[in-house]
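Reminder: ligand-aware prediction takes two inputs, not one.
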Amino acid sequence: MNSTRIIMVTSCKGGVGKSTVSANLAIKLALDGWRTLLIDCDFGVRSLDLIMGLEDRIIFDITDIILHGIAPEKAIIQDSRSENLYFCAAPYDYETDLDHEEFRNAIRSIGDQMNFDYIIIDTPGDTGSPLRLAAAASDEALVVSTYQPASIRAAERTGILLEESGVKTRKLIINCFHADGKEFEGQPGLLEVIDKTSIQLLGIIPFDSRLSDRQAQGEDVFTIPSCNAAEAFTNIAIRLTGRTVPLFTGFKKIKRAELIKKIQ
Ligand SMILES: Nc1ncnc2c1ncn2[C@@H]1O[C@H](COP(=O)(O)OP(=O)(O)OP(=O)(O)O)[C@@H](O)[C@H]1O
Ligand SMILES: [Mg+2]
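Here is what comes back for the chain with adenosine-5'-triphosphate:
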């Protein structure tokens, strides 16, 4: 029986933070002791290898395993952050349409053979075939949305698409939350975002202006000092593993009551 949890991180909208969430969540799960494989399913426009700082080590990609018989151990590389963290890149060029069942079976068999606890799959920001492939392979999905109305609408649409694709467990991650409330005026409140997407909330990640630069250097949020976003990832990883942790633990600088006032 397959015991690997296969989780896609998704939204059919670009730039909402899917790769950021995939990378940092996978890193956190691995640092917490779970054997974790991060797969880039953003075929054609891969960037997760850059975010992970692994671009110089990529020789093979996930389609080499499935289409060209390359051994998983060759295409899956270990990350130096943790002995539990592994990465598999997306192809640069992708023209073939992979068969959904073949893809699903390949991902499951990698999970079994290499004893992964978690496989996290990053997806592109559109409704094209890689998103559907990832959905075919995944049991669970984390839908990422910011506060932008277009992003919320995309999250809702993604939720419907996932339901149609048979991904039974779907959870929402709200990204780029402005804990100081500065960017809050005129934006829908947290509760409204949850209502509009009709997806149960798993976590909220604050905006951190230092994140982009760090990411460009292949560094993760856990290297940023006093970073609320890092705490948010810690909480999300804990919640994902089935333990309860208050939603707002990571928001040190604002009082919970003030936040609740803002979201109502
Ligand atoms: N919480 C955050 N705080 C600050 N910046 C963030 C946050 N989350 C993501 N970003 C920045 O937003 C940009 C887009 O993030 P990312 O690449 O993860 O999005 P994506 O949804 O994967 O995009 P694409 O659809 O193009 O693959 C990046 O520059 C990233 O550093
Ligand atoms: Mg991305």
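Residues 149-164 form the longest helix (16 residues). The chain has eleven helices and eight strands. We will return to this case in the review session.
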